[in-house]
Design a protein that fits this description.
Structural class: mainly alpha
Mean pLDDT: 83
Number of strands: 0
Strand content: under 5%
Low-confidence stretches: none
Order of helices and strands: HHHHHHH
Radius of gyration: 23 Å
Largest sheet: none
Number of helices: 7
Length: 180
């Protein structure tokens, strides 16, 4: 396997460069990165739904609950098509779900910090993390586009770090191949 990887080290570097380029684009325009994520979600839901529909149809002769898998597939195809046709609504829905998650988890973190107040030192760190979660959740609820911007930035950070690691790996593979 190492021999194969060292032979094609440049593909790893190329993949890393593409990831870095996407990360830079995401930083320059986080909205685009988030929109790409929403479109990928739509494509995934359609593909997964089609496969589930086919599986349900194949199961029909062998299992009485085939219709559950079939229905799940139809729902996936429908949601995927909706995401592809109405990406703005889908993006807002994703941001709102995350906002609610931040709010709920933040409240639980603050509550836990209050309960731990007498048992441990520095419980304020957990309370502070909870407060940050609540604040971020409120910001995302009040202005969902801010949440999309933040998610686009995180996608950019991930793509940059991932790309740098792949370029580094590719260059190490090249050195390993040259030393053989």
């Amino acid at each position: 396997m190492l021999q194969r990887l060292t032979q094609f080290w440049w593909l790893m570097v190329l993949r890393g460069i593409i990831s870095i380029a996407f990360g830079i684009v995401a930083f320059m325009n986080p909205k685009v990165a988030f929109e790409v994520l929403v479109m990928m979600l739509g494509a995934f839901l359609v593909a997964d739904g089609v496969i589930a529909v086919l599986l349900g149809m194949r199961m029909r002769a062998h299992d009485q609950s085939w219709w559950v898998v079939f229905s799940e597939g139809l729902l996936g195809v429908g949601l995927g098509l909706f995401a592809l046709v109405s990406p703005e609504i889908t993006a807002t829905g994703i941001v709102l779900i995350l906002a609610l998650w931040f709010l709920i988890s933040g409240v639980f973190e603050i509550s836990t910090a209050i309960k731990l107040r007498k048992e441990i030192d520095n419980e304020w760190l957990l309370g502070g993390a909870g407060a940050l979660s609540v604040i971020l959740g409120l910001i995302m609820l009040i202005n969902p586009s801010t949440g999309a911007f933040s998610l686009g930035m995180w996608i950019g950070i991930y793509a940059l770090l991932f790309g740098v690691m792949l370029v580094g790996l590719g260059l190490r593979l090249k050195r390993a191949g040259n030393s053989r």
